[in-house]
UniProtKB/TrEMBL annotation:
Originating species: Polytomella parva
Domain of life per record: Eukaryota
Protein name: ABC transporter domain-containing protein
UniProt-recorded Gene Ontology molecular function terms: ABC-type transporter activity; ATP binding; ATP hydrolysis activity
Membrane spanning stretches: 377-394, 406-426, 454-472, 478-500, 512-537, 595-614
SUPFAM superfamilies: P-loop containing nucleoside triphosphate hydrolases (SSF52540)
Keywords, comma-separated and alphabetical: ATP-binding, Membrane, Nucleotide-binding, Transmembrane, Transmembrane helix, Transport
Principal place of residence: membrane
PROSITE patterns hit by this protein: ABC_TRANSPORTER_2
Record membrane topology: Multi-pass membrane protein
Gene3D superfamilies in UniProt: P-loop containing nucleotide triphosphate hydrolases
Pfam families: ABC2_membrane, ABC_tran
Signal peptide coordinates: none
Length: 622
């Protein structure tokens, strides 16, 4: 037992530090923590992802959560970090003597996802500065924020790539190790008291993994409480940790120093399960041993051995003492733990910061601008050259062509809305991470995304509407012609965002949106007049924004001089009446202003529906 029981000097050091607070870190305590979910295959069965786990993490220390796949290490990390959104948690969680609020976890802790979630169009410095402005107090001078970011670049070894664009899958940028350190830097930019990392070395070579974890270790030395899941660390990386919690099947089977004593302890629990062969390092062998024990059905032996051990008794005694000690909590820590706001900055400041940082880069990106401008230029040139001066020949033989032109002019922006779907779907992980980090509210994010798109859409719509209007010779007000097209485009964009928000992936969204738009074509009033629609389908035409868009353009073009067009015959074949163009389409009493107002209402409804989805939908079930 001597190999793994803490030495007297270790114990004395620990006792001497019990009644102190780190300058930044906090002591994290969890006791009898369990997390259950309903079995998807059998709704009556409850599965334990965590079962009565207890332990603690100290400031100035870097603690590891290890175990085979499915052992519960990420579940424990997510429960402590407040990121678990599925299942039921019971037990005690204490941060410096108090249970943390969701708002505290968002504002004063850092969480590094396993997969990097960065904005590829920004440089490393811009990414960190953008986060600093949203995560640090608004009252802090901008010079101080820049100084903090420069210091962070130096601490994380990112100065060499300070002004390099991050890039992505389709664009070369920084290396994998630099991306991982940037991701960690985002979590540190607000000087968090605790840092949670989920598999920070995943996908990295051993040198880069050691480099990343060395940088994290330096943070622990400065006082931050650090907890990280890690699957297969190198020997060097394993030696950086101060504390180890080993889990198997949701139970802790070892909690203590990450040294050779952990191996001796596991071998005592399951002898003759795995031989310590030459070439093994301690971390690799320990994971292999508990994994093999799990596979052969001896996981419970590991849990039972730990439950009866002196290590468990010492840990439980420490936890009880920590929970019952009467140590005054500094007022600033008490206020942080009781904070009510999940964001540091108000919504308008967050919106301003996002506008300052992101659109300028997107507007310089050909892959962003092409789909949003290219289709409008191509379609407008096609219509203008195909129907050049057609509108100036105001003759009954030409009224159908004019009506078709106006119909196609509102249909194309609705179909072109598919170009806006990826913007929301591909940013889903980024949005989820930034909202969890307390950078902004869902409403703020949606307002920013739509404003960025609608501003560009307005600028792009001006020239294409001008040359179509004047090239074809459309009658009526050019202002109405432009406003209707722009509102149709706005409806399409917000509708695209709605389908993007409700769809599980890009493929589903790209299938749903065109299908819905196709249904709108039949009820807009051009392919089939609303007066002859079956009564059981007529209601749908009132929910069709294309009906109001096309109707407004028709009224704008023909209202001033609504000419007679089609004859109406009696049963004897005699002409009894000549219908005008607007009368034929059921638009004789239609109002341009009313139809424009209805379109604005559609935009509002689609916007609110999209906001409700992104606010309440769980995009990541953890």
């Amino acid at each position: 037992m001597a190999a793994y029981v803490q030495s007297k000097s270790d114990l004395e050091h620990k006792l001497s530090s019990k009644k102190t607070f780190a300058s930044t870190g906090m002591r994290v305590i969890f006791k009898d923590l369990s997390h259950t979910v309903v079995n998807s295959a059998n709704k009556k069965e409850t599965l334990y992802l965590l079962k009565d786990v207890s332990g603690y993490f100290e400031a100035h220390e870097m603690s590891a959560l290890m175990g085979p796949s499915g052992s519960g290490k990420t579940t424990l990390l997510d429960v402590l970090a407040g990121r678990k959104n599925a299942g039921k948690t019971t037990g005690t969680i204490s941060f410096s003597g108090q249970r943390p609020t969701e708002q505290f976890l968002r504002r004063y802790t850092g969480y590094v996802e396993q997969f990097d979630t960065l904005i590829g169009s920004l440089t490393v410095y811009e990414m960190l500065m953008y986060t600093a402005e949203l995560k640090r107090p608004m009252s802090e001078p901008i010079e101080k924020k820049r100084e903090a970011v420069d210091t962070l670049l130096e601490r994380m070894g990112l100065s060499v790539c300070r002004d390099v664009k991050i890039g992505g899958a389709m664009e070369k940028g920084i290396s994998g190790g630099q991306a991982k350190r940037t991701n960690i830097g985002l979590a540190l930019v607000s000087n968090p008291r605790l840092l949670f990392l989920d598999e920070p070395t995943s996908g990295l070579d051993s040198y880069t993994a050691n480099e990343v974890m060395t940088a994290v270790k330096h943070l622990a030395a400065e006082g931050v409480t650090i907890c990280s899941t890690i699957h297969s660390p190198t020997a060097y990386c394993f030696g950086l940790f101060d504390r180890l919690a080993m889990l198997v099947k949701g139970s802790i089977v070892y909690f203590g120093k990450p040294d050779h004593g952990a191996i001796v302890f596991a071998q005592e629990a399951c002898p003759n399960v795995k031989e310590y062969l030459p070439g093994y390092n301690d971390a690799e062998y320990l994971v292999d041993l508990v994994t093999e024990a799990d596979r052969i059905g001896r996981a419970q032996d590991l849990a039972d051995h730990y439950a009866k051990s002196e290590i468990k008794a010492i840990t439980d005694a420490d936890i009880d003492e920590f929970l019952h000690e009467d140590v005054p909590i500094p007022e600033h820590i008490r206020q942080e733990l009781q904070t009510k706001s999940s964001t540091v900055t108000p919504w308008w400041f967050a919106l301003k910061t996002m506008f300052k940082s992101r659109p300028s880069r997107n507007y310089q990106d050909g892959t962003f601008m092409g789909p949003r401008i290219g289709d409008k230029i191509m379609v407008s040139l096609l219509l203008m050259t195909l129907f050049l001066n057609v509108g100036r020949h105001f003759h009954p033989d030409n009224f159908m062509n004019i009506s078709a032109i106006l119909f196609m002019w509102v249909v194309m922006p609705a179909f072109g809305a598919a170009a806006y779907v990826p913007s929301l779907v591909l940013e889903r992980n980024l949005f989820t991470r930034e909202r969890h980090d307390g950078l902004y509210l869902s409403f703020t994010y949606l307002v920013f995304k739509l404003s960025e798109e609608l501003l560009l859409a307005c600028l792009a719509s001006l020239p294409v509407n001008a040359w179509v209007y004047y090239g074809i010779g459309i009658r009526g007000s050019w202002g109405i012609f432009f406003v209707v097209y722009y509102l149709t485009l706005c409806c399409g964009i917000v509708l695209a965002y709605f389908f993007a928000s409700i769809s599980p992936n890009l493929n589903v969204a790209n299938a749903l949106l065109p299908t819905y738009v196709v249904t709108l074509l039949f009820f807009a009033g051009f392919l089939m007049q609303t007066t002859v629609m079956p009564p059981w389908w007529k209601w749908y035409s009132y929910l069709d924004f294309l009906k109001y868009a096309w109707g407004a353009l028709m009224v704008n073009n023909f209202k001033g001089d609504d000419p007679e067009w089609l004859p109406v015959y009696d049963k004897n074949g005699n002409i009894v009446h000549m219908m005008t163009v607007l009368e034929n389409y059921g638009l004789r009493n239609a109002s341009r202003a009313d139809f424009v107002g209805y379109m604005a209402l559609f935009i509002f409804v689609y916007f609110m529906a999209t906001w409700a989805v992104i606010q309440f939908k769980k995009y990541q079930s953890r």
